[in-house]
Design brief:
- The chain is mainly α.
- Helices cover 66% and strands 0% of the residues.
- The protein is built from six helices and no strands.
- The longest helix is centred in the N-terminal third of the chain and has 12 residues.
């Protein structure tokens, strides 16, 4: 499938695609938003996750705001997710951003 997302978001798309080849599982969704929001703007994060997941952009953006305020995932959930992303080049991705 041809990626038709902004060039500056392609590395993030590929990172998510590597970690979640069959789609983002519900239990990983909020920890993913929380972790990536530390490195990205809210709108860019919402754009790439909406594009990958097929969810509406405004829903994802509200979820990004939610994980930063009222529905913060546990540090254990975020750490578990980070382990999954490390295998897919998370450290290199952080250096790019």
């Amino acid at each position: 499938m041809q990626i038709t997302i902004s060039p500056h978001l392609q590395s993030t798309y590929k990172l998510i695609q590597c970690a979640f080849p069959k789609g983002i599982e519900p239990q990983s969704y909020l920890p993913l938003l929380a972790l990536l929001s530390e490195e990205m703007s809210d709108r860019n994060l919402a754009e790439v996750v909406a594009y990958y997941s097929g969810k509406d952009y405004s829903v994802v953006l509200n979820d990004v705001y939610r994980v930063q305020s009222i529905d913060v995932p546990t540090s254990e959930a975020i750490d578990n997710l980070k382990e999954r992303l490390l295998v897919c080049g998370y450290e290199q991705w952080v250096e790019e951003e």
